[in-house]
Amino acid sequence: MEQFYTIQGEGFNTGRAAYFVRLGGCDVGCVWCDVKESWDADAHPKASIEDIVSAATAHAGRNVVITGGEPLMHDLGPLTAALHSAGCQNWIETSGAYRLSGDWDWICVSPKKFKAPLPEVLAAAHELKIIVFNKSDFVWAEQHAAMVSPGCRLYLQPEWSKAPQMMPLIVDYVKENPKWQVSLQTHKFLDIP
Ligand code: SF4
């Protein structure tokens, strides 16, 4: 759908330069999705793996974020193998709703209520990022935290439009439950993609 070189704005890798590859296609159906134009994979042009790798490595950074849409609707084995061969670190942002494919250096799973994540994808996560939309999401966050590996980093991130209401609750929750960290969509504050 689109590719761009920017700064990772959220989660564990916040602040690091990264080349984003947004793949078209998603049937998860989040009501607050801010990339609804990604849902129809056929609405976007196809790109060859060779062209994606060449565009990604045209910049100084070697971190590549594969996102969507829901990127795991595609078989990501060939793309991630080619990126690794070109010296890139492969990071993924996924809802976890589809079987894991590809070879990853960082897996961020952000579960969605509308299509549950697969247990095996949660077990492989390096980072669990829960978008907090309302108060009940803290219970939901703990249910998913119980399904990740012991070393997985845990983040609570306010849904952008709900941040004024949810941020005080998140701050209190993290102070009481310090295994969690706050994640913010800093790219939106910085006005970068
Ligand atoms: S999983 Fe991501 S792309 Fe798909 S509907 Fe939800 S927020 Fe949008």
TrEMBL record:
Biological process annotations from GO: tRNA queuosine(34) biosynthetic process
UniProt entry keywords in alphabetical sequence: 4Fe-4S, Iron, Iron-sulfur, Lyase, Magnesium, Metal-binding, Queuosine biosynthesis, S-adenosyl-L-methionine
Taxonomic superkingdom: Bacteria
Chain residues that bind S-adenosyl-L-methionine: 32-34, 69, 110-112
Binding site for [4Fe-4S] cluster: 26, 30, 33
Binding note for cofactor: Binds 1 S-adenosyl-L-methionine per subunit. Binds 1 [4Fe-4S] cluster. The cluster is coordinated with 3 cysteines and an exchangeable S-adenosyl-L-methionine.
Cofactor: S-adenosyl-L-methionine; Mg(2+); [4Fe-4S] cluster
Known EC number: 4.3.99.3
Catalytic activity: 6-carboxy-5,6,7,8-tetrahydropterin + H(+) = 7-carboxy-7-carbaguanine + NH4(+)
Binding-site residues, substrate: 7-9, 22, 67, 193
Family matches, as InterPro entries: 7-CO-7-deazaguanine_synth-like, Aldolase_TIM, rSAM, rSAM_sf
GO molecular function, one term: magnesium ion binding
Function (record text): Catalyzes the complex heterocyclic radical-mediated conversion of 6-carboxy-5,6,7,8-tetrahydropterin (CPH4) to 7-carboxy-7-deazaguanine (CDG), a step common to the biosynthetic pathways of all 7-deazapurine-containing compounds.
Quaternary structure annotation from Swiss-Prot or TrEMBL: Homodimer.
Family classification: Belongs to the radical SAM superfamily. 7-carboxy-7-deazaguanine synthase family.
PANTHER family, A to Z: 7-CARBOXY-7-DEAZAGUANINE SYNTHASE
Protein name: 7-carboxy-7-deazaguanine synthase
